Amino acid sequence: MSVNAELSPRDVVLFIAHLDGIASRFTTACENAEATVAEALGADNVPTNVNQVGERLLNTLNQVRRDAERQFAQLRTACADAIAGGDTW
Q1: Rounded to whole angstroms, how far apart are CA atoms 46 and 44?
Q2: Where are the domains of the chain?
Q3: pLDDT at position 1, please?
Q4: Residue 89 in 3-state DSSP?
Q5: Which of 37, 42, 67, 88 is buried most deeply by CB count within 10 Å?
Q6: How confident is the model over 1-14, as a mean pLDDT?
Q7: Contact status, residue 56 vs residue 37, Cβ threshold 8 Å
Q8: Helices and strands, counts by H and E, the chain
Q9: Please, are residues 82 and 89 in contact by the beta-carbon 8 Å criterion?
Q10: Residue 88 pLDDT more than 70?
């Protein structure tokens, strides 16, 4: 996707703020999903095969959340660096 418009530093700051909101909601959703799976796995008499699949799901959710947090941070940094460098978009 390409954009053929110049964005002011203010526009980019607003974009970063919007991005931070998305990142926060995504992180919260992942954390809630992780907590739900962990709670379900903590129930009495969870069959072994269900527990194994649940543990894999829990690990996957955790990895997805960490990867997304890292990528949001990298994008935020790249935007801030572009503003500091006087880049136009």
Answers
A1: 6
A2: 9-84
A3: 46
A4: coil
A5: 37
A6: 68
A7: no
A8: 2, 0
A9: yes
A10: no
**How far is 50 from 85, CA to CA, in rounded Å?**
52
The token pair at 25 is 């909601």
Other CB atoms closer than 10 Å to residue 79's CB: what's the count?
19
Question: What would you measure as the largest C-alpha separation in the chain, in angstroms?
Answer: 60
Count the neighbouring beta carbons within 10 Å of the beta carbon of residue 61: 20
Torsion of CA 12, 16, 22, 26, to 10 degrees: 140
* pTM: predicted TM-score of the whole model, two decimal places: 0.71
Residue with structure tokens 């699949």? Answer: 53
Token pair 């947090």 in the structure block, residue: 69
